[in-house]
Amino acid sequence: MINLVVKALLLLLISSPLSAADAVLNSTSKEGPVAIGERGGNFSLFGKQGMVSLSDFKGKVVAIYFGYTKCPDVCPTNLSFLSSAIAQLTPTEKKHFQSIFISVDPGRDSPDVLADYVKFFDPDMIGLSAAPDDLDPVVIQYGAFYEKVPFSNSALMYGIDHTSETYIVGPDGKLRTILPHASNSKKILESIRKALK
Question: What structural domains and CATH numbers belong to the chain?
């Protein structure tokens, strides 16, 4: 699965000017258990469908992941675990679930690029992003982080360091669980089902 995604990423490479913020700082540790505190909340970002808000999915459990489509390993790994968990949901559970991928690389991740990327992991996943002025407040409110890292000898020009947590939002729109990097599909599935109850 990951090999297919990596091949797809190579096909999707496009050149565009840098347009994301240099850095959005994370005020909490990026490792270990994460306290939810005041994190989370509604947001509105753009996808191939147009403007999409978290509140559009009231009554559903939502899994949110911040990343970017040119990510070589971290994003495909986490999204593959999420994909495996989603595949284990019953048809009834799937009716009450939505996955969202938020790109922190809006300069390269157009709505079309995002739509093509997310379908590798979940045909119902929605890819969203926005210009930094609209994206960064969402990143901050979830306690996430991203920062551009220039590449001197690469056609990609830059990579992005970012948090790799998976956020599980309950049917009431409130953040329920923050899963650390590489949480396996069993843990993700348990968290989704707990939020569905």
Answer: 2-196 (3.40.30.10)
